[in-house]
Amino acid sequence: MDETERIATSPSSKGRETSEFLMRIVRTLSHSADFEQREKEKARIDKAYKQSDKKLGELVTAHYEDLTKVTQDFSRMSKCINDSRERITKIREDLSSCKTLLHCKRDELRRLWIEGVEHKAMVALLDQVELIKEVPVKLDNFIISKHYLHATDLLVNAVAKLEKPLAGIDALRDLKAELIARNEQLHETLIEELNKQIYAAVPDQSVSLKRSSSYRRGSNLTKQLSDPECKQTKPTELLKPPEMMDLNKEIKEDLNGNPEENPAHFIAVLVEALFVLRKIPDSAEGIKSKIEPELSAIVARTSQQVVDSYAQQGESLSSQNQPRFLLELLENVFHQFRNVARMHKIVLRNLQRIIPTPEETVDEVSGVPVRNELLYDMNDVWSKIQAVLELVLREYLDVQTSSRQRAPTSFDEPSTDINSYFSKKKPTKSKKISLFRFDASIHAMSTNSYVDDNMTFDTGNLFHVNLLSEVGLGKHQMEMCKPSVNNITAIFMPLEAFIKEVEDAVACQDGTSSLQSFVTEFIQNIFLGQVHATVSSSIAAATKGFDALRHVVDHKTQKDLGVTRPLLTSTVTVDRNIRKLQELMQSLPTYGDQFLNMICNILKEYRDTCNSAYRGIVQIESDEKRVISATWAKDEDISRFLRSLPSWRSLQMSERQDLSKKLCSEEEIRTLNSKEALILISNLSSEAIIPQQEIITDVTQMRTIANVHESLEWFAGRLRQFCELLSARSPNSMNSIELSTREYPPVSDKSLESLKMLVKDFQDLAEICLLLLHLEVRVHCFYFLLPVAKQSNYAGPIDDLDPDSNVLKLNKDLSAMEEMLVQSLQPQKFKYIFESLGFLVSSILMSSIQYLKKINENGIKKMCRNLFAIQQNLTNITMARETDLDHARQYYELLYMNPDDVLSLIVEKGPDYSYTEYVSLFQLYQKSHPHIKPANLDTLLHKLEEVMNKTQNGSST
Q1: Which has the closest alpha carbon to 647: 550, 771, 761, 562?
Q2: Predicted local confidence at residue 773, as pLDDT
Q3: Sequence-separated (6 or more) residues with CB below 8 Å from residue 934
Q4: Any residues with CB less than 8 A from the CB of 55 and at least 6 apart, and which?
Q5: What is the rounded CA–CA span in Å between residue 522 and residue 403?
Q6: Which of 327, 416, 417, 491 has the fewest CB atoms within 10 Å around its CB?
Q7: Distance CA 572, CA 712 (A)
Q8: How many CB atoms lie within 10 A of CB 140?
Q9: What percent of the chain is helix, strand and coil (3-state, nearest 5)?
């Protein structure tokens, strides 16, 4: 294609390029020499034109639908644009006409505007009159819906309008007198509602709600109850802390909402309404006078609610010794006391908002200076709360008996105003001496006078009499559970949280409240000693005795613990007691170090018990000498080597890791197995025979060792988790471990380090037990297989073809160990015990060829029968064909061939065995065939060395 055609067919020729193309064609036709050339050029152009036209037609045909759609869209858009232009023109003309008409009517519009203003003023005055007439109805509606601020503002504004703007209207005179009377009634209503909000802000259904959740109480309980701002009902969820209240924020009411939905805001509304009515001093005095009786009524009312709640479901509190009833009582009391205190804070903050400073102001009416001071503070509230709670705790923690045996201790704060009440009762209690009693008299059994008189000598009972007399309840109805020192575990956390609130709210002289002093003395002097005695007796009963470490738990306990293999009963018992102490660490976090020291002491004793039991199994009689496997398991070099093997490392891998991933190649594993076999053979094969007392002949002892391993490994794992949680809570820890909701308290580094060392001791003993089992099985192989070559005859008659008796004993021994260990060990550990055992057996029998004095064909068959019998047994145990025993059988089958044929086989296929193994083979062949002279043997060995060197060099190249 020439340049002209290329330009004509080029898809990039546009605009100017097209014009240049046409000019080029004209010049070509003009400069043509003859007519024929012009005709050719013309024909070529026509051809190109036809091709272009054809291509254009094809393109139009191919894109006909798109071309049609574009054309239609263009037409529609063009029509819309034209219509919009016409509408804009019409709007512009209409605006111009309006402007002209408004300009013409300007004076008339101004007159109409002035008349409208006058009419609005008249209508507004009439509206005020109508609104004033509707005030009583609106006021009743606001009071019914408890929108007191709107009611107060409406009433005050209405009275103000009647006294000034509408004072001249005689028709409103009776309405004015009525509204002034309603002012006094509204004041009384506001006072009553304010007291109700302070002491009855917690709904009655809080008891049932907290009761229904008490059965699900777990780790969240501690966190919730330790939070001073814990919100457990819908009203208190919206209760804003008084310290966070914005005193400058204007108090408003929402007529569309429930005023009591937010108690804090509702109290602010009530105080604001009282301020609008100018009744603040009278209101503060009324609040102060209600503190003491209302607190007493809360405890009595809550006790009765708990009793009634359980009585409806048929539960009797007096017949059960469950501290959950006491916990529920205290939770409800704390909950309500917190709200009472919070409500008082809200009231005081609102009073401070209204009376910001104690500066003197001048009364507007009398002109006398008045000092603006609040009539009560929070110390009055907290002092009475502490006194009530102390009396409740003294009864339910059974402190009365112990308090009679030692000098009474005062736990009351000097700031309380009821010290004289308590100090007057305590001495009489300790001095009371009963000379004789009339419990069984008819008079005592028929009346309650004797009980009433006796109760007056008990501070706790006096509390019940005084407190419950207001609501008509008896002492038996108040008992949530039997008094016990163990009740402290259920109530300690909420009690400490409440004590912290008290200490933060009340400035104590010595930094400790009376409640805290009482609880501290009780735990240190009574509770800790009882816990230690109980745990010690439980563990002693499970660990003492000859068979203490042989008993395992039943299947139900095993299933509950989530384990697949039996655990020692003693280990489970120790673990349960440890768990109890861990729960006590969580229940009583302040004494975490004391409980952790108890745990460490228990673990030390149990570690010594396990070590003694282990020594009793592996130690030979009373000597210091141990069985061979135990000695090797303690040997650092052998233990370190065994722990470096892939089979051991696979046991240490986490369950989340891919266990199918090979740690080493098969060749590397074979090399390591051969090294293990070489170490064992070098230590044992030199001996003539292994003494029976140096192996564990009782398979039940191996089962015991397996149970000890599984138990201690499981126990160490649980202790390790405990250590991780304690480490995360350590003050010096920088770990970001996600903790459970119920956290452990921080403990000392020394105690934590001691616990970690004990965990390591248990883990080490568990690993030693597993290594011992691994080695013991292999020592048994040596024990039975070494005599096979050293003591048996392999040059006997033709009928002596049965496997060696020691081989049969080995199979029986391996089967017995399998039967015991498969029930006691996990599958991967059972695999570790019997893994690579075939390689060891083949190595023992191949290395034992040096001890054979002579062998014939019958002896070769007998040795092959030995290998086959062991292979069949191991295959049944490991469920895998032991190819290493095939390798050993093929080794002995080489004895069927003469040494020259063996050398030829090595040259042809390469060596399958080592040089030493071939030498031992040739030496046995020479001893079995006396016609082969020693000189010929030396020649064969020389040829063997040359062949081995040549094949090794050839394989290396």
Answers
A1: 771
A2: 92
A3: 926
A4: none
A5: 10
A6: 417
A7: 10
A8: 12
A9: 75, 0, 25
* Phi, psi angle pair for 369, to nearest 5°: -65, 135
Instruction: Please list the alpha-helical segments (H only) found in 14-133.
Output: 16-30, 35-62, 64-104, 106-133
Q: With H, G, I as helix, E, B as strand and everything else as coil, classify residue 360.
A: strand
- The whole-angstrom separation of Cα 511 and Cα 493 is 20
- What Rg, from alpha-carbon coordinates, does the chain have? 51
In terms of phi and psi (left: phi > 0; alpha: psi -120 to 50; beta: otherwise), the region of 398 is: left
What Å distances lie between residue 274 and 151, 156, 189, 286, CA to CA?
11, 11, 10, 13
d(CA 672, CA 493): 57
- pLDDT for the residue numbered 789: 83
Residue 378 C-alpha from the chain's centroid? 39
Burial class (CB in 10 A: 0-12, 13-18, 19+), 642: buried
CA distance 243 to 226: 19
DSSP character at residue 882:
-
Question: What's the CA angle centered on 325, arms 319 and 331, to 5 degrees?
Answer: 165
Give the DSSP per-residue string, 794-821: BS--TT--SPPHHHHHHHHHHHHHHHHH
**What is the C-alpha separation between 637 and 643, in angstroms, rounded?**
10
CA distance 382 to 388: 10
CA–CA distance, 812 with 801 (Å, rounded to integer):
19
Task: Tell me how far apart the alpha carbons of residues 491 and 484 are, in angstroms, rounded to a whole number.
Answer: 12
Residue from 207, 211, 190 nearest 279 by CA? 190
* Nearest alpha-carbon partner for 820 in 714, 705, 693: 705
787 bridge partner residues? none
Give the single-character DSSP code of 362.
E
Tokens representing 901 are: 């044929």
What are residue 476's phi and psi, to 5 degrees?
A: -65, -25
- Rounded to the nearest 10 degrees, how much is the dihedral formed by the CA atoms of 843, 845, 847, 848? 160
Distance CA 30, CA 309 (A): 120
Write the DSSP string, 530-554: HHHHHHHHHHHHHH-STTTTT-B--
Contact between residue 251 and residue 269 where contact means Cβ atoms under 8 Å apart: yes
Q: Is 880 helix (H, G, I), strand (E, B) or coil?
A: coil
Nearest to 578 by CA among 705, 323, 789, 755: 755
Cα 924 to the center of its chain, rounded Å: 69
- Provide the CA 787 distance to its chain's centre, in angstroms: 59
Block means of pLDDT (10 residues each) for the chain, 957 residues, are: 46 59 74 76 85 88 89 92 93 89 79 86 80 87 90 87 76 82 87 87 46 38 36 40 62 84 86 87 82 83 82 61 82 88 87 67 49 69 86 81 41 34 37 43 40 37 43 48 85 88 76 83 87 87 75 89 90 92 90 92 92 85 74 84 82 53 61 76 69 86 91 93 82 43 78 93 93 91 87 76 87 92 90 87 88 87 91 89 87 89 88 89 86 81 86 62
For residue 551, what are its two tokens? 């008993």
Residue carrying the six token digits 């054979």: 852
Prediction pTM value: 0.65
Query: Whole-angstrom distance between the N-terminal and C-terminal Cα of the chain?
Result: 64
| Structure-token pair, residue 278 | 């100018």
